[in-house]
Write a structure and sequence with these properties.
This protein is an alpha/beta fold. The chain has four helices and four strands. Strands 2-1-3-4 form a four-stranded parallel sheet, with helices on both faces. Helix 4 (78-90) links the parallel strand 3 and strand 4.
C-alpha cells in the first residue's frame, strides 16, 4: 500500500503557484489538505479562479499546526517566501520553496 503524503500550499502569488497546485492535485502520491493565502485581496481573487474553486482554504495558523501535513509548497510572492519557509520549517514541515 502506497503512503500518501499530505501537503499544503502557503501563498499563491508566485508565478508557479497554479502549476504546483495542479501537480499536487494530480499526483497519486500527494493529497492536498489545504491552501493558505494570507493576503485577503489575493485570496478572494484566487477563490473565484477555476483552479482554486474546490480547494480548502485555511488560515496560516491552521495550515502550519495541522499535524497531518508533512510538506508545504511555499508559493507566495518572492519577497514573502523566505519568511513563509522559515515559519513552515519551524512548524516541523518539509518545504518546497519557489
Amino acid at each position: 500500500m502506497k503512503n500518501i503524503i499530505n501537503a499544503g500550499i502557503l501563498g499563491t502569488g508566485h508565478a508557479h503557484a497554479i502549476g504546483k497546485l495542479r501537480t499536487i492535485q494530480s499526483s497519486s502520491e500527494y493529497k492536498l489538505v489545504g491552501v493558505c493565502e494570507p493576503n485577503d485581496d489575493l485570496r478572494k481573487k484566487r477563490q473565484n479562479e477555476e483552479s482554486f474553486k474546490r480547494v480548502n482554504f485555511m488560515s496560516k495558523k491552521d495550515l502550519l499546526s495541522d499535524e497531518s501535513i508533512r510538506i508545504i509548497a511555499i508559493e507566495g510572492e518572492v519577497k514573502e517566501n523566505l519568511d513563509y519557509g522559515i515559519d513552515a520549517v519551524e512548524a516541523g514541515k518539509h518545504i518546497h520553496l519557489d
